[in-house]
Amino acid sequence: MVNMMLLWMLVAQASGAPPPAIDPAPPAADERKRMVENVDQALGAQAQPFPSGGVNVGTIGGVPIGKLMLIPDIAVVVDGALGYTTLSTDQQTPSALVLPQHKAWPFLQEVELALQATVDPYIRGDVFLTFDPRGVSVEEAFLTTLSLPWGLQVKAGQIYTPFGRTSQLHRHQWDFIDQPLSMQRLVGLDGLSGFGGDLAWLAPLPWFAELHLAYQAAAPGAGEVQQLTGTGRLVQYLDLADWATMGVGLSWSIFQADLPEQWKNLAGADLYVKIREPDSRSYLLLQGEVYGRQLGGQTLGEAAWGGYGQVVWRADRSWEAGARYDNAPAPVAFEGGSQQTWTALAAYLPSEFFRLRVQPSLVVLPGGSYGFQGIFSFEFTMGAHGAHPF
Question: Residues near 262 by Cβ (< 8 Å), separated by ≥ 6?
């Protein structure tokens, strides 16, 4: 009886009609069916909470009853790990993950809290908070327009800079447990991000082509000093066949370098190829990026370069395997040179909401010395988590 009255109250809230009087007698089967139909009608089409004629209409999945109660989609993603390394602290720094040497060290990588909802017919809101041993931080908190004309869309708030591919991904979107060191040391330890705005234009072409122009106060590198940052990115996706897609991206960021050692220019190119049979859960993913970074006072010939290439094979619904080669600037223990890292990956997914991964890495340091790092991680998701941009 309580459930039926709750349904009637939701219908009344959606339609503006007063709720019926409480009847202590349980409703008949046909009346119960009619009430459920009324609720479904009040909820409307679940795939489109607000109709719009624009081309950039975004929707969030989740519990449809939350639309009537003004409750956003809420999700929690937990990522924990056990790591071991033979490298010293100076041989790992700078890096987002620095492990104690010669110890099997358990650690919490991150807890992400996601709040997502369509605010009104014009904008959608997304908030991502992260909890880790360093404290609580705002990973992203932004609004996105839903119905601008001419293929335009605006994102404003605390956002990832539209630079490259890997830098914009949240942790649970990563194929590997950690990000490539070339991205961490040449772009940012946690990716390039900051408060500002991103204007995107979807070009009216037979294939997907999108241009981004962003202006932010971003903190590149180790993230200690914010600089005014302008970024442009052109990304295109092409269907090579019914079973193959290729994405190509070019990115450039310009920083206001007031001091000689501050960042001045950052360039990047990325390639993404996915091969998948339409009627299969298995796929083959090829991905790579190249980065170039110039500091204030440096010539283009003195710029630092690096990049990575990786392959991931999803055998079926539950098993993945991968390999990655990464070439990054040397850690602080060395005055120059580069570090090469060879990484293997094995992942088991009992479901789409739980993942176990094992990742051993062979590290080749400047001068030819070697090191080892191994990580085992588990990750699970609770709640209705909307899709991130592809």
Answer: 225, 227, 255, 295, 296
Domains in the chain, CATH or no CATH each: 2-43 (no CATH), 67-383 (2.40.160.10)
The amino acid that residue 309 corresponds to is G
Rounded Cα distance between 386 and 61, Å, is 6
Nearby residues of 50 by Cβ (< 8 Å), 6 or more positions away: 57, 118, 120, 121, 146
The one-letter code for the residue type at 66 is G
| Residues ≥6 apart with Cβ < 8 Å to 72 | 66, 115, 116, 117, 125
Whether the Cβ atoms of residue 363 and residue 341 lie closer than 8 Å to each other: yes
Tens-of-pLDDT digits for all 390 residues of the chain? 445 454 455 545 545 555 555 455 555 667 777 776 766 665 554 444 333 333 343 444 455 555 556 788 899 999 999 999 999 999 999 999 999 999 999 999 999 999 999 998 999 999 999 999 889 999 999 999 999 999 999 999 999 999 999 999 999 999 999 999 999 999 999 999 999 999 999 999 999 999 999 999 999 988 778 999 999 999 999 999 989 999 999 999 999 998 888 999 999 999 999 999 888 889 999 999 999 999 998 888 899 999 999 999 999 999 999 999 999 999 999 988 999 999 999 999 999 899 999 999 999 999 889 999 999 999 999 988 776 666
Q: Which residue has the tokens 């991931």?
A: 312
